[in-house]
C-alpha cells in the first residue's frame, strides 16, 4: 500500500510555476529522497503534502487522506521537520518534548517514557534540562527529528534536515532515519547533498518544478551511465540548460 | 566613507522594498496627527447643563440667557427640585447644574449679594474645572454689565489680553505635543527594532566580522530611518499649518534645526534601547511601554509641568519631548529666534551624547 | 483541552523565563502607575506671575499682595516696563502679567476709572483661561472692597454682587489622583495586553516555529485560546497589583462592586487580546505588527477620554470612539470604582465590549490559517 500518492500535483504563485505536474508514489517504510537544486520546488512540494500549502491543481493523498479536504487528518498522521529551526530556543529540551508530545495527544505517561527512551538513544540524558539555544546545531537537529517522530507518525517529512551539519553528525542522523524506516515509518526527505541520495531507497530529482528522474540510485546511475549520483544530477542539469 | 555610503544605500533599498511597512510608516503619522489634532481638545462646545431656578426672576433668567447664548453651554434639562439633581448626574445627561435660590433678584438688590450655585460632575475633573471656569467668567461679565448700567460704577476696570493665541484654541497646545509624541516614538522604536532584529537573527555578528566598523554599521542602519523620520516631521508640520492653521511666526530654518536635533535624540535613544535588549519583541515592548505614557504625562503635552509636585518637575527634565515641545512652541507660536531655543537645543544634544555613550559601552560589553 | 493546556504552559514558561520581560510587564507599569498619577493635575496653583508696577503706590502694592496671597500665583518677575516683562514671558518665565498703569492710585481717587491690564500666555488655552479668571476674580474682589470703603465714607449704597459657589460631585475631594488612578491602570492593562498578543504569533512566524505548529493537529480555536489565556491571567494579575497599590498608597475609594469590575476587565482583556492576535495573524513581521499596534494604541489611549473629555471632541471623532474599547473601559472603571454604578448602569458599555471581544476573537481565529 502506498502512503503518499501524488498525481499531476501543481502549485503556481502568480505566473511562476513552483511545482509543475509532479506524479509519484511512495510505499510504506520506504526512504524517499527528494533531490534538486535550491529553488527547484522541493520545499513547496513537501509543504503541499504536509497540508501547509494548498495545491493549485492535481491530486494527492497522504496516509490515505486527501490534501485538499483532509489536511487536518493528515496532520495527525505525519511528522515534520522544517528547514527553519523548529524547536523553541527559550525552552529546555525536556519542555520542548513535553509540549509537542501533548499537542499530538500523547498521555503524560507516554511522554515520560518516550522522553527517556529518546534521550537515551541520543545519549543526551544530561542535556535534558538545558536550553535548546545552548546546544550545538547538530544536536538540535537530532532532537528536532526525534520530536517529529515522537507520536509514531505513518510518514515523516524532513526538509533539508542535515543542512549545515558536520559529516559525523550527518552520518548519525542517517542512522536515526534507518532505524525509523525499519520500524515501518515512511521517510520523505529533501536534500541537496548528493551523497545522501545514495542512502535512499528511491530518489526523485526535481529540476525547475518538474520531476526529471525517478528511481533507485542504482537504476539512475545505470540509466545515465554515471558512477555517482552527483554525476547524474549534473547531467540532468546540463540537459535542462541546453534545452 | 565610501563603505558607509554603500551600506546606507543597501539599507535604503531594504526599507523601500518593504512597501507595506513603508505605507504604514508614512500614513500612520498623518492619520494620527489629523485625528488627534481635531479630537484632542479642551475647547468646550455645547456642554449639557441643567437649570434649577427657584426664582424665575429677571436676574436669574438673565444669567441663564448669557450662559446658553455663549455657545459653550446648552440647556438640556429644567429641574423642579433638588431631588432631581442626583438623578440627572447619575444618568450622565449633564455636565453642570446651575442652581438659583428663591428671591434671587431681591437678594441681589437688597442684600447686595445673590448666591449662584454651580455643581459639576467631577468624576471628569478636567471638564468640571473647565466648565466651572467658563461659567464663572460668564456670570462675572454679566455682573460687570449690570453694575455698569446702574450707577454703581467700579473704581477700576480690568482688561485681558490673550497673548500668542487670542482665540484660545487648544490646538496650539496639543499639536506640538502630538508632533513630539509621534516623532519620538516612531523614530526611537524603528531604530531600536531594526538593530535588535540584526542582533536576534545573528546577522549583526556577521556584519561585525566584516571589515566594516561597528560605528559604520550602526550609522548606516540609522541614516535611512533618520531620513524617513525627517520626511515624516515635514509632513506633520505642513499638515499642522494647513489643516490646523498653526502659525509659523519664527524661522522655518530654525524649526527644521530643532526637528533634526530632536530626531537625533530620538534615534540615539532607539540605539540605546537596542543595545540593552536581545530580541525585537523586548525592543518593541520597552520602547512603547517605556515611552508612551511618560511622554504624554511628563512632557507638558497635556498637563502643565508647573502643577506637578517638585520631584516630578525634576523628572520631567529628563524627557526629551519636554524640551522639544518648548522649543517648537517658542519658534512656531511665539516666533522667537535662537536666543530662546539655544538651551533646549543644547539639552537635547547633551541627551543624544549620553545615549550614544551608553550604547557604545553596552555594545562593547556584549561583544567583548 | 490538554492541547490548550500545553500551549498555555509553553507561553507561561517563555514569559517567566525572560527576566527582562517580567520587569517590563509588571514592574514598569506599577512604577508608572505610582509616579504618573501625580503628573496629571489640572489644579492651577503655581501660576508664574509677572508684575509691571508703574504706579508704585500703596494701592498697587495692595493689589500685588492680594494676588500673591491668593495662593494661585507665585511672583516670578517684577518690572517697570512692559517690554521687558513680555520678553520674560517669551522665555516662559511668567504665565501671566498684571500691569498697573502710572498714576493708578491718583486716578482712582479722581474717579477716572483706570485700567489694569492682564496679559496671559494663551498657548495653553486652558491654563490661560483659568489663570485669567483667577486674576480677574481677585481684582474684582479688591475693587469691591475699595468701593465698599469709599462708599462707607460717602454713605452710599453698597455694591451688589453674585456670590458664586461651586460644588464638585462624585469626587468631593477634587482629587485628580482618585480620577487618574483607575484610568491609568486601565491604560496600562490595555498597553500590556495588546502589545504582548500582537507580537506573539508574528514572532513565531518570524522565528519559524509556527511552521512546526501548523503541521500539528492543533485546532485554530485551541491555538488562539491557548495563546490568549496566559495573557488574560497576566492582565488580571496586573489589575490586582494595580488596585492594591492604589488602595495602599493613594487610598483609592472603591465604592462599587469589585466582582463587577473584575468581570468587566475579564471581558475587556478578551477583547484587546483578541485584537492583538488579529494584528499578529495579519502581519508578516514583528515590525509591521509593531506599527499597526502603535497606531491603534495611540488612537485607543489618546481618545479614551482620560486626558481630554470625549464630549469635547467633534462629532465625527466621537463616532470613531464608538469602536474604541478603551474609552468604554475608562468610563466603566471610573463609574464602578468612584460612583458605585451597578451592572444595569453600565449595560451599554459592557455590551459594546462584549461585541468587540466576540468580533476580534472570531476574526483572529478566522484569519489564522494553518494552510496558506
Search tags:
heterotrimer; A: 243 residues; alpha/beta; Rossmann fold; six-stranded mixed sheet; four-stranded antiparallel sheet; C: 372 residues; abc type-2 transporter like fold; four-stranded mixed sheet; 14 helices; 66% helix; 9% strand; elongated
Topology:
The complex is a heterotrimer of chains A (243), B (368) and C (372).
Chain A: E1 2-13, E2 16-27, E3 31-36, H1 42-49, E4 57-62, E5 65-66, H2 71-77, E6 78-81, H3 93-103, H4 108-122, H5 137-148, E7 155-159, H6 167-182, E8 186-191, H7 194-197, E9 202-207, E10 210-215, H8 217-223, H9 229-242
Parallel strand pairs in A: 3-8, 3-9, 6-7, 7-8
Antiparallel strand pairs in A: 1-2, 1-4, 4-5, 9-10
Chain B: H1 2-17, H2 19-39, E1 47-53, H3 58-69, E2 73-79, H4 82-90, E3 96-100, H5 104-110, E4 113-121, H6 125-149, E5 157-163, H7 171-201, H8 203-208, H9 214-242, H10 252-276, H11 280-298, H12 310-316, H13 320-334, H14 342-367
Parallel strand pairs in B: 1-2, 1-3
Antiparallel strand pairs in B: 3-4
Helix pairs in contact in B: 1-9, 2-7, 2-9, 3-6, 7-9, 7-10, 7-11, 7-13, 9-10, 10-11, 10-13, 10-14, 13-14
Chain C: H1 2-17, H2 19-36, E1 47-53, H3 58-69, E2 73-79, H4 82-90, E3 96-100, H5 104-110, E4 115-121, H6 125-154, E5 161-169, H7 176-207, H8 209-214, H9 220-250, H10 258-282, H11 286-302, H12 315-320, H13 325-339, H14 347-367
Parallel strand pairs in C: 1-2, 1-3
Antiparallel strand pairs in C: 3-4
Helix pairs in contact in C: 1-9, 2-7, 2-9, 7-9, 7-10, 7-11, 7-13, 9-10, 9-14, 10-11, 10-13, 10-14, 13-14
Amino acid at each position: 500500500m502506498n502512503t503518499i500518492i501524488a498525481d499531476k500535483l501543481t502549485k503556481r504563485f502568480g505566473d511562476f510555476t513552483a511545482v509543475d505536474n509532479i506524479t509519484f508514489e511512495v510505499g510504506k517504510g520506504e526512504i524517499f529522497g527528494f533531490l534538486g537544486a535550491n529553488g527547484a520546488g522541493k520545499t513547496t512540494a513537501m509543504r503541499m503534502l504536509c497540508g501547509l500549502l494548498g495545491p493549485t491543481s492535481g491530486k494527492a493523498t497522504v496516509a490515505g487522506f486527501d490534501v485538499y479536504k483532509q489536511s487536518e487528518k493528515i496532520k495527525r498522521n505525519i511528522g515534520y521537520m522544517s528547514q527553519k529551526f523548529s524547536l523553541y530556543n527559550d525552552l529546555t529540551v525536556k519542555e520542548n518534548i513535553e509540549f509537542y508530545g501533548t499537542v499530538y495527544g500523547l498521555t503524560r505517561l507516554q511522554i515520560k517514557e518516550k522522553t527517556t527512551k529518546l534521550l537515551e538513544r541520543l545519549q543526551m540524558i544530561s542535556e535534558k534540562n538545558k536550553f535548546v539555544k545552548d546546544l550545538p546545531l547538530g544536536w538540535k537537529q537530532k532532537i528536532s527529528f526525534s520530536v517529529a517522530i515522537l507520536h509514531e507518525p505513518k510518514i515523516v517529512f524532513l526538509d533539508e534536515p542535515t543542512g549545515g551539519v558536520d559529516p559525523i553528525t550527518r552520518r548519525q542522523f542517517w542512522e536515526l532515519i534507518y532505524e525509523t524506516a525499519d520500524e515501518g515509518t515512511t521517510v520523505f526527505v529533501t536534500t541537496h547533498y548528493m551523497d545522501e541520495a545514495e542512502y535512499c531507497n528511491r530518489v526523485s530529482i526535481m529540476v525547475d518544478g518538474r520531476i526529471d528522474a525517478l528511481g533507485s540510485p542504482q537504476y539512475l546511475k545505470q540509466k545515465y551511465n554515471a558512477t555517482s549520483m552527483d554525476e547524474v544530477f549534473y547531467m540532468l542539469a546540463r540537459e535542462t540548460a541546453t534545452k | 566613507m565610501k563603505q558607509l555610503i554603500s551600506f546606507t544605500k543597501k539599507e535604503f533599498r531594504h526599507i523601500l522594498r518593504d512597501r507595506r511597512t513603508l505605507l504604514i510608516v508614512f500614513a500612520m503619522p498623518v492619520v494620527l496627527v489629523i485625528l488627534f489634532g481635531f479630537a484632542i481638545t479642551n475647547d468646550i462646545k455645547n456642554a449639557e447643563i441643567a437649570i434649577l431656578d427657584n426664582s424665575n426672576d429677571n436676574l436669574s433668567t438673565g444669567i441663564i440667557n448669557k450662559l446658553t447664548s455663549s455657545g459653550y453651554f446648552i440647556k438640556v434639562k429644567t429641574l423642579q427640585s433638588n431631588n432631581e439633581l442626583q438623578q440627572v448626574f447619575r444618568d450622565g445627561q449633564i455636565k453642570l447644574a446651575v442652581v438659583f435660590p428663591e428671591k434671587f433678584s431681591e437678594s441681589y438688590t437688597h442684600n447686595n449679594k445673590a448666591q449662584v450655585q454651580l455643581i459639576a460632575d467631577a468624576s471628569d475633573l478636567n471638564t468640571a474645572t473647565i466648565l466651572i471656569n467658563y461659567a464663572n467668567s460668564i456670570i462675572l461679565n454679566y455682573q460687570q454689565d449690570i453694575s455698569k448700567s446702574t450707577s454703581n460704577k467700579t473704581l477700576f476696570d480690568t482688561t485681558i489680553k490673550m497673548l500668542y493665541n487670542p482665540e484660545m484654541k487648544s490646538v496650539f497646545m496639543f499639536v506640538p505635543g502630538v508632533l513630539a509624541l509621534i516623532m519620538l516614538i516612531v523614530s526611537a522604536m524603528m531604530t531600536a527594532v531594526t538593530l535588535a532584529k540584526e542582533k536576534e537573527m545573528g546577522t549583526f555578528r556577521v556584519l561585525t566580522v566584516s571589515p566594516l566598523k561597528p560605528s559604520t554599521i550602526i550609522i548606516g542602519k540609522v541614516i535611512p530611518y533618520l531620513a524617513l523620520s525627517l520626511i515624516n516631521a515635514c509632513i506633520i508640520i505642513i499638515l499642522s499649518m494647513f489643516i490646523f492653521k498653526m502659525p509659523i511666526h519664527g524661522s522655518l530654518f530654525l524649526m527644521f534645526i530643532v526637528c533634526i536635533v530632536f530626531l537625533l535624540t530620538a534615534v540615539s535613544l532607539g540605539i540605546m534601547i537596542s543595545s540593552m535588549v536581545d530580541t525585537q519583541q523586548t525592543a518593541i515592548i520597552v520602547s512603547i511601554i517605556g515611552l508612551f505614557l511618560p511622554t504624554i504625562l511628563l512632557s507638558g503635552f497635556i498637563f502643565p509641568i508647573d502643577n506637578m509636585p517638585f520631584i516630578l518637575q525634576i523628572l520631567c527634565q529628563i524627557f526629551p519631548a519636554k524640551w522639544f515641545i518648548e522649543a517648537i512652541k517658542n519658534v512656531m507660536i511665539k516666533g522667537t529666534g535662537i536666543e530662546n531655543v539655544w538651551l533646549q537645543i543644547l539639552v537635547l544634544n547633551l541627551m543624544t551624547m549620553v545615549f550614544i555613550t551608553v550604547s557604545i559601552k553596552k555594545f562593547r560589553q556584549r561583544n567583548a | 483541552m490538554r492541547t490548550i493546556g500545553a500551549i498555555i504552559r509553553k507561553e507561561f514558561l517563555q514569559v517567566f523565563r525572560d527576566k527582562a520581560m517580567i520587569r517590563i510587564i509588571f514592574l514598569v507599569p506599577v512604577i508608572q502607575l505610582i509616579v504618573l498619577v501625580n503628573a496629571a493635575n489640572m489644579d492651577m496653583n503655581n501660576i508664574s506671575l509677572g508684575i509691571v508696577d508703574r504706579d508704585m503706590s500703596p494701592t498697587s502694592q495692595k493689589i500685588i499682595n492680594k494676588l500673591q496671597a491668593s495662593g494661585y500665583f507665585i511672583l516670578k518677575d517684577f518690572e517697570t516696563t512692559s517690554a521687558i516683562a513680555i520678553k520674560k514671558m517669551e522665555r516662559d518665565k511668567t504665565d501671566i502679567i498684571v500691569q498697573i498703569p502710572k498714576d493708578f492710585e491718583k486716578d482712582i481717587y479722581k474717579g477716572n476709572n483706570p485700567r489694569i491690564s492682564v496679559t496671559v500666555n494663551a498657548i495653553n488655552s486652558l491654563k490661560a483661561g483659568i489663570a485669567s479668571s483667577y486674576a480677574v476674580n481677585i481684582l474684582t474682589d479688591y475693587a469691591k472692597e475699595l468701593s465698599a470703603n469709599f462708599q462707607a465714607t460717602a454713605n452710599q449704597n453698597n455694591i451688589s454682587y453674585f456670590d458664586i459657589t461651586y460644588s464638585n460631585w462624585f469626587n468631593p475631594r477634587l482629587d485628580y489622583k482618585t480620577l487618574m488612578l483607575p484610568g491609568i491602570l486601565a491604560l496600562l492593562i490595555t498597553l500590556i495586553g495588546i502589545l504582548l498578543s500582537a507580537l506573539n504569533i508574528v514572532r513565531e512566524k518570524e522565528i519559524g516555529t509556527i511552521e512546526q505548529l501548523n503541521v500539528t493537529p492543533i485546532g485554530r480555536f485551541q491555538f488562539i485560546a491557548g495563546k490568549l489565556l496566559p495573557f488574560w491571567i497576566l492582565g488580571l494579575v496586573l489589575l490586582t497589583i494595580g488596585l492594591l497599590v492604589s488602595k495602599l498608597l493613594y487610598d483609592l475609594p472603591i465604592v462599587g462592586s469589585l466582582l463587577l469590575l473584575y468581570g468587566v476587565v475579564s471581558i475587556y482583556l478578551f477583547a484587546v487580546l483578541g485584537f492583538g492576535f488579529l494584528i499578529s495573524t495579519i502581519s508578516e513581521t514583528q515590525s509591521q505588527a509593531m506599527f499597526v499596534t502603535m497606531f491603534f494604541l495611540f488612537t485607543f489611549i489618546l481618545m479614551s477620554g482620560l486626558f481630554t473629555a470625549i464630549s469635547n471632541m467633534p462629532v465625527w471623532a466621537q463616532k470613531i470612539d464608538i469602536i474604541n474599547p478603551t474609552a468604554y473601559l475608562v468610563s466603566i472603571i471610573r463609574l464602578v470604582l468612584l460612583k458605585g454604578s451597578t451592572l444595569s448602569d453600565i449595560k451599554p458599555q459592557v455590551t459594546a465590549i462584549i461585541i468587540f471581544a466576540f468580533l476580534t476573537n472570531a476574526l483572529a481565529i478566522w484569519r489564522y490559517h494553518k494552510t496558506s
